[in-house]
Specification:
Helices cover 35% and strands 17% of the residues. The protein is of the alpha/beta class. The protein folds into three domains: 2-243 and 362-435, FAD/NAD(P)-binding domain, CATH 3.50.50.60; 250-359, Flavocytochrome C3, Chain A, domain 1; 452-550, Methane Monooxygenase Hydroxylase, Chain G, domain 1 (Up-down Bundle). Bound molecules: flavin-adenine dinucleotide and succinic acid.
Length: 555
């Protein structure tokens, strides 16, 4: 297949960018499952933006920066915050129906925000955004969506036929040159036809979302196996700040968790509306940790819950929703009310048992203010990217905002550079001719191994290792232990992958183990505590050594 713009992922980042790029050329979106299946679809709280008369950009910038443990990049923060209102109104123009009161957008509040600024659609904001974007995509003739197409690896110089465009060993010697490589599209596994296809594109955009599934307890759906982070790393992209995995403080506590199911989120907006965290005996505890109590930023609340649970030997803490009142609860949080009720908890009458769960990747593939990665013609957008917005800890509801602001930035960059962006090595050739210069997928010598048990066992082991040793509270010994095990598994999976025909399960396992490896490698580099990265043996911040992003690049 050949296309102008290839987008991997059908969440808010991929879909909002596709609509814009469709004015410049043909857009192909590939997505590994059904098109609505994404983190976006499950977003509850909303999108943060300065829209209230008593709010201003400086306050949102300040809240973002102070939440981020002095690692946020001011230029990215300013860009995202200042463009927020424009991008929100664009979503409204597309047809997203946000909750209103008396003709005005109703603004919610979440942890770390000093003002009410969360635009939302009841407690189903993500579903409403996906609905509206997918509707627009369905009537756009320049956009094709291919479901059940799994992106395997990016096409770079090493996938070009010999002697045609090889850049030579010396070229690849330094980090600078390795990352100056270009991307020409990717290999994708057509799941239904069970074959690998090459897709050539002028520009490729990774919008593959998060990595929550490398942990046992996660709010992320099954698609979030870190594919984009792993693909980017393998192709030579710079990857930054992977140690900062955000744990959402309040996911519904359930006793049984299957291997790739997500846990149900109890939105921070519930605390924003007045709910209070308590222990089993009905006692408040957050005042001991932060003066903002239950509405402190997530790193603080998640750590406090973790500490209370460990101290008391409890399996969960509780969210007391009684200050909100039954009527408001049912009206503003209908999905949370209904879902809890279906699990035997009437939140208008009893407290909700909650535990922290892996939720969001603050790090990712490093991009500049135009969404460009360190590979030419490759962009990254949304959760998979590292724009500099979140620093060491993301402010609630800033991620949907980041995705729409950066999809606009990528669109504008491509629009401005459309005549010059095509890969240098194929100068003078049209896409069709270039197609034959790229190696076909080669699986000679591989076998169909039906080893589901092996794969599911490995997946479970990765999740347990990450949960037990690379969670909310870390230390050097635990990280080293996790690293040794994940490193060994990575080698084993690599070998297994080389001799086996691809399946979705195997591809996900390969990405999960590499993503876990990157998180641990980054965590081991940061010998201090900052934001989401808390080390028992380095409990203090060390600005002299570590007030900088953690960088990984493939050796
Ligand atoms: P996603 O929406 O996750 O989309 C990724 C897409 O890529 C999917 O379509 C997936 O199938 C596809 N994909 C992945 N790998 C491959 C592959 N190898 N090949 C092909 N396709 C692939 N943020 C907020 O700002 N506000 C909120 O209220 C909020 N609530 C949240 C609630 C929950 C339960 C969760 C899980 C997250 C929440 N977040 C929230 C975070 C936010 O939803 C995500 O960060 C955001 O939606 C990510 O959007 P995205 O487009 O980058 O990725
Ligand atoms: C929530 O609704 O609590 C999730 C918000 C977010 O992750 O930004």
């Amino acid at each position: 297949m050949i296309t102008d713009f290839l987008i991997v992922g059908s969440g808010i980042a991929g879909l909002s960018l596709a609509l814009k790029l469709s004015t410049l050329g043909k857009v192909l979106i590939i997505t590994k499952k059904r098109k609505a299946e994404s983190n976006t679809n499950y977003a509850q709280g909303g999108i943060a933006s300065v829209l209230a008369p008593d709010d201003n950009f400086d306050l949102h910038i300040q809240d973002t920066m102070s939440c981020g443990g002095d690692l946020c990049h001011l230029d990215a923060v300013e860009k995202i915050v200042r463009e927020g209102p424009t991008r929100i109104y664009e979503l409204i123009d597309i047809g997203v129906k946000f909750t209103q009161k008396n003709g005005h957008l109703l603004l919610g509040k979440e942890g770390g925000h000093t003002k009410s600024r969360i635009v939302h659609a009841k407690d189903l904001t993500g579903k409403e955004i996906e609905r509206a974007l997918l509707h627009e995509i369905s009537i756009n003739k320049n956009i094709e969506v291919k479901e059940y197409y799994f992106a395997i690896d990016l096409l770079t110089e090493r996938n070009l036929k010999k002697n045609k465009h090889k850049l030579g060993k010396s070229y690849r010697h330094t980090i600078e040159n390795r990352t100056k490589n270009a991307c020409y599209g990717l290999y994708a596994y057509n799941v239904k036809a069970k074959k690998v296809e090459k897709i050539i594109a002028r520009n490729t955009i990774l919008a593959t979302g998060g990595l929550g599934q490398v942990y046992l307890h996660t709010t992320n759906p099954a698609i979030a196996t870190g594919d984009g982070f792993a693909m980017g790393y393998r192709a030579g992209c710079l990857v930054e700040n992977m140690e900062f995995v955000q744990f959402h403080p309040t996911s519904l506590y359930e006793t049984v968790i299957d291997d790739d199911t997500q846990v149900f989120l109890i939105s921070e907006a519930v605390r924003g509306a007045g709910a209070v965290l308590k222990t089993k005996d009905g006692k408040e505890f957050m005042h001991k940790y932060d003066k903002r109590k239950s509405l402190a930023p997530r790193d603080i609340v998640a750590r406090a819950i973790d500490n209370e649970m460990k101290k008391r030997g409890d399996k969960c803490v509780y969210l007391d929703t009684s200050p909100i009142g039954a009527e408001k609860l049912k009206k503003e949080f209908p999905n949370i009310y209904k879902t809890c009720l279906s699990k035997g908890i009437d939140i208008t009458k009893e407290m909700i048992p909650v535990v922290p769960a892996a939720h969001y990747a603050c790090g990712g593939i490093k991009v500049d203010l135009e969404g460009r990665t360190s590979l030419k013609n490759l962009f990254a957008c949304g959760e998979v990217s590292m724009t500099g917005l979140h620093g060491a800890n993301r402010l609630a509801s800033n991620s949907l905002l980041e995705a729409v602001v950066f999809s606009d930035a990528i669109y504008k960059y491509i629009k401005k550079n459309i005549l010059t962006i095509f890969p240098k090595v194929s100068k003078g050739k049209d896409l069709k001719n270039f197609y034959s210069d790229v190696l076909d997928w080669n699986d000679k010598g591989t076998i169909n191994a039906d080893e589901w048990v092996l794969i599911s066992h490995d997946k479970r082991e990765i999740k347990e290792i990450m949960n037990d040793y690379v969670g909310i509270v870390r230390n050097t010994v635990r990280l080293q232990r996790a690293f040794r095990r994940i490193k060994m598994m990575r080698e084993e999976i690599k070998e297994y992958y080389k001799r086996t025909k691809v399946t979705v399960e195997l591809l996900e396992l390969r990405n999960m183990v590499l993503t876990a490896y990157m998180i641990i490698e980054s965590a081991m580099k940061r010998k201090e505590s900052r934001g989401l990265h808390y080390m028992l043996d380095y409990p203090k911040r060390n600005d002299n050594k570590f007030k900088k992003d953690t960088r990984l690049v493939k050796h």
